[in-house]
Amino acid sequence: MAREFVLQGIYQWRLAGGSAGTIEAQLRQSREFIRTDEQFFTNLFKGVLSDISTLENTIQPFLDRTLSELSPVEYAILLLSTYELVHFLEVPYRAIINEAIELARTYGGSDGYKYVNGVLDKLALKIRAVEIESKK
């Protein structure tokens, strides 16, 4: 649930702008927010928005197009998943990628989940190489 709210927040930020605090306050007003892990949401949302430039630079080499050509949903999913891969090492990379695929299936275009999966698989090989090698 927290990832869904983070996705919504990044989506809103990309399309309409606004401060992280304002967007976060709006998201917290949702009736569904009570079911969310607030600390995870806050860490992920604020972390992504404070690290946009680094995240974009990390993602770009694994794309077959520019970031501006990504749908806002794919963009948001790739940002939040990349942030998780880098900063939430206690979460298995496969779990992060699976969550991203589910978000893309639910909120993205018909084949967006395939694109997200392909990009994150390649990205994980770089960011989580030790974890991936240990699973072989």
Notes on the structure:
The protein has about 140 residues and is an all-alpha fold. It has a single domain, classed as NusB-like (N-utilizing Substance Protein B Homolog, Chain A, Orthogonal Bundle). The chain has eight helices and no strands. Helix 1 packs across helix 5, helix 4 crosses helix 5 and helix 5 runs antiparallel to helix 6. The longest helix has 16 residues. The chain is globular, with a radius of gyration of 14 Å. It starts with a helix and ends with a helix. The mean pLDDT is about 95.
Quick structural gist:
With 136 residues, the protein is mainly α. The chain has 8 helices and no strands.
Features:
mainly alpha; globular; 73% helix; 136 residues; single chain
Estimate the strand proportion. under 5%
Separation of the first and last Cα atoms: 31 Å
Q: Secondary-structure element sequence?
A: HHHHHHHH
CATH topology: N-utilizing Substance Protein B Homolog, Chain A
* Named CATH architecture: Orthogonal Bundle
Largest sheet: none
Gyration radius (Cα, Å) is 14 Å
In the CATH hierarchy, what is the superfamily?
NusB-like
CATH class: Mainly Alpha
Q: How many H/I helices?
A: 8
Give the number of DSSP strands.
0
Mean pLDDT: 93
GO molecular function: RNA binding
InterPro entries: NusB-like_sf, NusB_fam, NusB_RsmB_TIM44
Pfam family, one: NusB
Keywords: RNA-binding, Transcription, Transcription antitermination, Transcription regulation
